[in-house]
Amino acid sequence: MISYARLWKTMEEKGATTYTLRNKGQEYNISSSTIRRLKANQSVSTNTLDTLCKILDCKLCDIVEFIAD
Length: 69
Description:
Layout: E1 2-3, H1 5-13, H2 18-28, H3 32-39, H4 46-56, E2 65-66
Antiparallel strand pairs: 1-2
């Protein structure tokens, strides 16, 4: 399973909110439905993960974690 718990932690550390993602996301095409998918730990595209790294200026390991079933 992929967990996005690290995303929320990184956002908190950087002072970012979902509002930040939506506003910057419009520039990068991150929709509010994608943010809902992240909150539900549902799959998102690698392009979305790349964009999140750009917005938050972080590495992939700062936003996702693989948890074995």
